[in-house]
Amino acid sequence: MQKILQEAIDNNRRWSANGAVASYIPELAKENPDALGVCTYTIENSTLCAGDSQIKFTIQSVSKVITLICALIDKGKETVFSSVGMEPSADPFNSMLKLETRESHKPLNPFINAGAIVCTSMVNGDNGIEKFNRIHNMIKIMSDNQNLDINQSVYRSEKLTGNTNRAIAYYLKGAGLIEKDVEDILDTYFKLCSIEVTALDVAKMASVIANNGLTPWSNERIISKEICQIVKAIMTTCGLYDSSGQFSVDVGLPSKSGVGGCIMAVSPQKMGIAVIGPALDSHGNSMAGKKVLEYISNKLNLSIF
Q: Were both Cys, which of 52, 67, 95, 115 would link to 110 (CB 3.0–4.6 Å)?
């Protein structure tokens, strides 16, 4: 297994040269485009890593998985999916187009920015601080790491440049899909994207989903099996934005990407996998990270299809 992980890194590092770091958030533009690492965490509570797996990065849109989990726990699937759809999008992750053309104005799914903002507003808490703490605590529990915190430089950069997300959020407010204060919800959203993690943290989060909501290290149930099934389905169909179909063909694992260069992947009943490679493709997904996951999935016959 260690040999396969190392081969996955060595054979695919060259793909980073075909991508570029996310420059629209100035702090992310400082990331090393050549970095590439992977960690696995099995439901038997064992871990293996290779490459640049120790580097820290911000979780970005991988946090949307945990936000969805919290919204489903707090409000139930009927309420959540009355305001957010569960269909794939053929548009970029920050597009407003479908919000305006859909009669209901509902975001297509919880993993595009619009859907994640609505889900953030649904999580329990009277204000943004309480909502952030709710989701942040779940991230710390799922990663078995109580020391995870916000990268303040990235948070300030996100907030300063987040005008498209502001436009989306105010549109959602006008459509009646957000009840709370828009700026408060946006601040929570920006903070969640700015939580700093490692590949091992993300692999452990994925392992909880792979284990149907039980923590592999303590066998404690923190998520219901039903919610894990819902989340895995939406990760499969929507997790890599408008290239989710291609990724399902190539890799075949429920996954979620972020513009920090991370991809969280779930191998049901086996393991959680996390890759980090900040150089992105045109869809906002890690260029080399996708290839690493494809290599591992093929070598270990992990595709759910």
A: 115
281-285 contacts: CB < 8 A, separation 24 or more?
281/18, 281/19, 281/243, 283/92, 283/93, 283/240, 283/241, 283/242, 283/243, 284/22, 284/92, 284/93, 284/241, 284/257, 284/259, 285/240, 285/241, 285/243, 285/247, 285/257
Is 64 annotated as catalytic?
yes
Which mean pLDDT values do the consecutive 10-residue runs of the chain (305 residues) have?
A: 97 95 90 96 98 96 98 97 86 55 75 95 95 98 98 95 92 89 95 98 98 97 98 96 93 97 98 98 95 98 97
CATH 3.40.50.450 fits 61-193, yes or no: no
Which part of the chain is CATH 3.40.710.10?
2-58+197-300, 61-193
Among 41, 155, 171, 189, which one carries the catalytic annotation? 189
Active site residue 24: no
Whether 89 is catalytic = no
Q: Does the 2-58+197-300 domain belong in CATH 1.10.1040.10?
A: no
